[in-house]
Structures
1.
Amino acid sequence: MTTSSDPTEFAVPELKYDDHGLIPAIVQDDATSEILMLGYMNERSLRMTLEKRLVTFWSRSRQEYWTKGETSGNVLELVDIRKDCDVDALLVRAVPHGPTCHTGHRSCFYRELGDD
Amino acid sequence: MTTSSDPTEFAVPELKYDDHGLIPAIVQDDATSEILMLGYMNERSLRMTLEKRLVTFWSRSRQEYWTKGETSGNVLELVDIRKDCDVDALLVRAVPHGPTCHTGHRSCFYRELGDD
């Protein structure tokens, strides 16, 4: 038997994941409070986020782990993570290095509902 | 044939809903930029939100339409709605009337990940 002192150990069991084992994670710019994106984490990507201190999702489209900015360099440096009252959503505060959106915008939410 | 001038008409077809016909909607305090909650909308609750100017979700647990604060009075008055680059998430800016969380907290995200 081993006793783990991994500080990320606590994070997992208390959360409610959906049928696909995922939990939505809102990413907010820690300095400006701007919402940058919404992604999905599973248990392991949450652990990877805590360990690497870089926001890491499960990509639903590519079905793979995705450390945001790993290729582009536009990483999201972790500040802290909050959970909601129902423990089925996360709020991740981060320092963005470069634009978060693949379109080059700072935030993925750059359009109003009615915009083309 | 009728010609509709309903300003909410545009909102629906362009969005990507999930297998349950839902899209996640992040609610942000328009004045402070604080994240208040994450809820889910379907096509009709999005329309209701735009028509009533009060944020209205589809409650997954109760399987019913849910205009936030309808009972408590703690409504979320709509300011505007943004969509993300993938059109599968919404960012709703609102004026909260009273606390948003059922626990009495301003925001549902009042705990750090490791808190009990």
Note: The radius of gyration of chain A is 15 Å.
2.
Amino acid sequence: MISWKNLNTLASYEKLAALKGRVNLAEAMSGEGGAKRVAEYAAPMAGGLAYNYAAKAVDGEVLDALQALADEAQLTEKYDALLGGEIINTGEKRRVLHQLTRGQQAGAVVVDGVDKRAFYVSQQQKAAEFARKVHSGEIANAAGEKFTTVVQIGIGGSDLGPRAMYLALEQWAKQNNTLKLEARFISNVDPDDAASVLKSIDVAHSLFVLVSKSGTTLETLTNEAFVKDALKNAGLDASKHMVAVTSETSPLASSSDYLAAFFMDDFIGGRYSSTSCVGGVVLSLAFGPEVFARFLEGAAQADATAKEKDIRKNPAMLDALIGVYERNVLGYPATAVLPYSQALSRFPAHLQQLDMESNGKSVNRFGEPIDYVTGPVIFGEPGTNGQHSFYQLLHQGTDIIPLQFVGFRKNQAGMDVDIQGSTSQQKLCANVAAQIMAFACGKADDNPNKAFAGGRPSSIIIGDQLTPEALGALLSHFENKVMFQGFCWNVNSFDQEGVQLGKVLAKRVLAHDTDGALKAYSELLDI
Amino acid sequence: MISWKNLNTLASYEKLAALKGRVNLAEAMSGEGGAKRVAEYAAPMAGGLAYNYAAKAVDGEVLDALQALADEAQLTEKYDALLGGEIINTGEKRRVLHQLTRGQQAGAVVVDGVDKRAFYVSQQQKAAEFARKVHSGEIANAAGEKFTTVVQIGIGGSDLGPRAMYLALEQWAKQNNTLKLEARFISNVDPDDAASVLKSIDVAHSLFVLVSKSGTTLETLTNEAFVKDALKNAGLDASKHMVAVTSETSPLASSSDYLAAFFMDDFIGGRYSSTSCVGGVVLSLAFGPEVFARFLEGAAQADATAKEKDIRKNPAMLDALIGVYERNVLGYPATAVLPYSQALSRFPAHLQQLDMESNGKSVNRFGEPIDYVTGPVIFGEPGTNGQHSFYQLLHQGTDIIPLQFVGFRKNQAGMDVDIQGSTSQQKLCANVAAQIMAFACGKADDNPNKAFAGGRPSSIIIGDQLTPEALGALLSHFENKVMFQGFCWNVNSFDQEGVQLGKVLAKRVLAHDTDGALKAYSELLDI
């Protein structure tokens, strides 16, 4: 029997809170004790990755307390319930089924007579077949020429995740001769976004993927009109250049405006939709369906690992619990995501949505106000770039910001250069290793301006190379981490009521139905 | 006589702190009182911009207290001292002269017999002449063909600022037929960064701008070697494709490896160098020297506005003071920068460096530990994209995050579409107006999950269009805001000792001179 309780009502949380300040990270990571931690505080992940938490302020006792919290909060039981199709998204009274989009998940969730796993898989197969026809030229432009570019039109989860995934594998795909179409993305309602993309592509050889679950997203429909204008001005038939990704009940579903339509449903939240056809159509077109299947396989393996009850063998759950400890017990306000991989340049922006939109809540899943902090601010840029930017504050600022590093032994593009006795890849990896230690241990100095207090915790996910499988595992790791944190905080991680008010007010502005300050701002902005 | 004192030793700060919670923002912004605030709480800026702070939790009394703080902390006197060439960067015993790079600043700072303003201007003129020769074809590739692309190689301040400025004006320049060369940027030591850029350009028609003040930045020299390899492999003479931007004392200054060299010096911090030749060479090449001169003009005008002692007429100083009030009195941990302009997509990343590297400090300018918080975490993405991402947490999360909006009445690219009775630009502007009000006033609802507490403060900088002058004014506004905040916190905003330890440890890793945990991480990463 699952019971949903607020974090601060759990006995195990009280015990955890009593351990505050127990671990002196700088001391723990010094000397051979530090080396021992690096060897021991590691958990294998799917996709050939490993989660290393040696530089987190935990020890055996804290880990035991976190295990007790995981057990008392029934984290894996709640995950099982989610996988089994329970109404976990209580606010919207919806199931949460994005794990089923990986396709590999055993078991069936049947809703209104439909096996949802089979449904999601069928849409991905449809996307795969469509992509193969585009690649072969069977589906081509009016002149019978192959498409060379795919442009995703979507915003939020229809943009950030798929875009981050595309950028993550673009160089890998080039190097492995599997980049079939270049992908571009239009998201912002700012007309300069669409204009910029349209000016940079050859529309006659471009295929547009319109992504909106409801079929009513203002930005996306506006940008669709923008693109249709451009196609028309180029003398092209827009319906031969566009496909839709939407729900079966949306106005786009059966429109003749599209070459094809691919479906998701209300059980796939936008920020969790990269493995559904929201990501599947554009990524299958860009890289080929086989690459997308490998990406799903990595995610599915990570989903399986997340079922493990032992936190030391369940990196997503452990990462979540350490995050709760840092946020609620230690009081840290933000988390930085720092991939030492240029390919992951937009992965932090995806995680920013995933995490902040899921757990930036002030009421629990029953709609009752809660009296502890929930989701932190998430931000980040790739290393080593960030080192030359905001790391100053991370090292010597007045707040402690926990850090999430990611690093790979090999680069993707297969080009490198040896300077001063080391390759660029070695320099990149040396920097991330050095940073972990600089943050953890610091350095004394007679000049306080050159002293580093240390005690700044981090973890690192290490892989051999950023492959499709590794990327899928990385994506799933963070999805499941966010889910487990939501369970701990007893919030509904799958709705987003906080985005509604702005939409309503914007409509009033456009209808000139305003007064007071809103009218004054509207006038200042010449609306 | 200037005296440098810690914030919490100022009598005016104690008075300010006593006003905590005085303004109920939701009430203040409701009804006609809200409209009155929008009209009154505004200050003109350079470049045709205006700073509107109606939606900040201030009133006449708080503003008076902020004015008293500005006066007691001698903010404008300290700015005057900086402009006059005093050693404001105490840690490194350096002057701070980036305002002189705008060229328009009156007065002279003479160092070792050199008029620094004349020196910076001479370098910009050199850059302008060089750019004109490239544009005319007088300077061309070995085949006598014009260069079409300029690639900046730099990291940190040599990358983020110039890149953000380029992206900010790229569409404007296209629309105004003044895009002379397309610009690209290589920064990360990750070899996939350089590989990706090199694969996407025509190296035979590319000019590379190597930017490193010291001439020793590891990432930049490594990427230079990477690029030289690529040029050599293409049968090209690298020295005919590269210029250097560096200091006169650097090893690059007189090298025959470059077509030309342009100089800055130690008085221009990297994050403050966009208006020096660090930004000047690439931006003059990309847009033409006339556009760069207009950008400088906007910055210079904003610098002049920042001398004003009345905070109501000095937006940079007022913005700084409100930020100190929010950070130190109200205890808010972070600030989000939210430009409703796709052209400003990387402006938040530049501000992240500018702000966090300048004021992420725990010791005062005399090297003494301080006992109050300094620089906050800075993050952001363009609107409306962010609305579909992390705004959930901003609206309904447990922390209050102050917001800095930016909006323009007109777009840049001159393309737009009318859908459902409004243009995209109107939709964009309607959204930012709506968001300000949603954050400030919130909305009651019987369902707490759909209720918005409001009381979430924001300001907005509004302009007619993002022109070169407006961009210059925007850049200077934030540079001067950060400077004034540094004065309030009594920190040195112009050094960055926090980046040193990581560099030292990375060198040890590459030299295999490690033990303990550092060695263990190095082995995990196959270094």
Note: Residues 407 and 462 of chain B are 5 Å apart (CA to CA).
